[in-house]
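Workshop exercise sheet. Pairs work together: one partner reads the sequence aloud, the other fills in the structure field after running the prediction. Swap roles for the next sheet.
Pair: D.N. / O.F.
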Amino acid sequence: MKKKNTKKNRAKKKVPKLFNSTDLINKIRQEVVGENYFLKQHIDLIADCVLQVGGIYECIKESFSLRIKSIDGFIQDGCITDAQKLLIDQEKRLDDLIENDEVTKRENEILDQCTKNHKVIQSSMEDEFKKSGIIEFINFANEKHNEYIESIKDKAKEYNNDIVNERLGSITSKESVACVIKNELWNSYLENNNLKEIICDFKDLAIKVLQHLEVRKNFHDYIIYYQNVHKRQVREIKSPTLSITGVLPWRILPNESAWSEIQTILSKEFNSGSISQMEFVAAKIRLQRIIELSPKNIYKGIDSFSDYFALTFDRYEKVVFESIKYGNAIYIVQGDWRVLSQKSKSELRETQKATIIRHEGDWSNKLKRHLGYFRVH
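Structure field:
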């Protein structure tokens, strides 16, 4: 007997759609119905909470990225003392985030403050409810109901039998008519004025909304990335090869005009006959795809790597070597790429520190997988 394929029967896990702060606030506002003042205040408070909490994560991410760039710049310029100072500061910030749970504390402070502000909104809504005269009417109805019960009791004394006593007991034990009136009026008031959303556990609701905040959800991945970059930068500072290597076989291209310069280099290679027209077009397409991954720096090779570009990234601890000549593979190197790049291609393969991707099939996604692109996006 064949086993049933249970995979088809399994319900797919619903993955929540994540948003940045602005998109999440716009989504919240789109769901607002009506023109009620209190409801708008309620939505504004949630939006404020999203912006403040999102701001914590976005500021941390930005500050770490700026430090990483500055440290790498100091290392490349040989300013080791300056790089070490920034690394010490970066390490302290990492400790605060991981060991002291700084972000959670700050997030809870914002949530608590927004919850207090929300209680003020609810209180103002209740004041409006009181001004409407509904409470006075409920009190009047309750008073009349009590008078009615007392009159029944008085009349019942004249008829001392089991049926009357049983009926009287059922009336007096039932939920007060005033309570029923109160609930109906209260619910009607909330629905007519579009206020039901305000009667809620604001903190619980805010936490659920923040779960859709992209930068908050991915923060753990960013921390791992910062730790890995920190280790890499410490290794580069301690590495003696940086100070004794001398002229490396690479020249850095200016970021602001890197793509323009790459095209100029390719045109020169084509005009000189070093590469064919097919290689010229293919190289432009390949390099354009890699540049879409946002490299931090782009280097042009000389000497043994004269037909290669080296692309370094902030997010990944790996460097991509891409050739302008058709048939030469992509090399993904992990480690001190400046030293490794001085080796020949055969020596580089023997180090087991290089991954080779040939320009065939879905090479672009293979490259992304090796870099870890999908884990941080």
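Discussion prompt: Residues 247-375 form one domain. What would you look at next?
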